[in-house]
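notes to self, project folder thing:

trying the whole complex as one job this time. last attempt i did each chain seperately and stitching them together was a nightmare. two parts in total, labels are on each line so i dont mix them up again. if this works i'll redo the older ones the same way
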Amino acid sequence: MLDLYKSKKFPDIKFYFYYSVWYWPKEDEYSHILPYKYETYKMKIYAMLEHKSQLANKFMEGDPRPFYQRATTRDGHYGQIHYSDFCEVYYLINTHNS
Amino acid sequence: MDIQANSQKDLNLFKKIIVKKDGLTYEISADRKISDLLNLILPLNIQKESFNENSTSGLKSNKQNFVFQISQNNDIKIKSVFKEEYLSGKSELEELKHPFFSNNSNPKLNSSAKLIKITDEMNIDDYFTNNVTKACFKIHDCGNSENTKIDDIKEIKKDSNEASIKEISNSILKTKLLNEKNKQTLSFENTDKILVFSPHPDDEILGACGLIYKCFTESYNIKVVYMTSGKGGGQAETRKNEAIAGINKLGGSENNMIFTNMPFYEKKDREITEDDIIHATKIIEEEKPTSIFICSDIFDPNGTHR
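result (full assembly):
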């Protein structure tokens, strides 16, 4: 997908990164935030729990937490930084990396 | 100081940890949220190295055990190991790569904390109602203030949805304000069309669920493109159905989903070629999005995310 962005075939489209649960981006690795409240957090948990086949999977890095906890813990971390209950972070590639 | 960790064999989960120090007893109970457990342990002013073989627990399904060791300088080392590996002595403890552990400026509670008790047993509903994860974060926040007492944390926990932290150090406030200046809140127009490319079924929820839920609840035009079947991590049909169930839970439908298999995923070496670019280009040309969200993580041990 990044190759596709770099090809400049779609110059009018905004390309954003979102991050897999493996990674906690540093401050300069995200340009946009999406703060969200506890209600959305609940929905996120419920949606994650629908992926039943993945619930018992352990992380490759040796992190002992179930995958869904890693995601919500990360969102809580960024929520703390940005005055919100939780927060997802995104990176607008066009602006910062063109 | 003694540290005891009792695992409840039937559940194979951490049930309770008792820390005795200076004549005081710290009782920490938790469910499988080991990270929360460690977040609670970390702030304690631990001075003596202590390692108890009983401090292992694990998930029954994969016989995974968690071993942790607290050193004299408060470093916590942890590793999830298989029991056989641990008993054979082949496993060495590693420092957990976690921002709370690696950040030197991480606040720590002062030793005035007297008792931390969550609940004896928790299930998924408790995960919400007791809001343990959040409470743990608040402990870290509060911990930077020398005047913070554990009572503050209890109060936050009681009213966790709306409560604010009573005392936050100026340094934390300044950091937050600085960070906020440089970030924009994600927003869209009614005319926008959003495509979220998900490497596997579940990545879209893990990384961009807030975005997807926002689009559904605020009636923005959004579709999730599943780039692979995820058959490497389970049955393809099962994972597809789980993805549908997840999107349904958020208020979407199959109309908001595009299941595709990028050509690279069918190759043994998973090499990305021009065919993959053509495949993705076709989807974009058909859907005509204004914004595209792609999952990226160059450090990801799972190569498909890169």
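what i see at first glance: Confidence is low (pLDDT under 50) at residues 1-87, 91-180, 298-306 of chain B.
need to look closer tmrw
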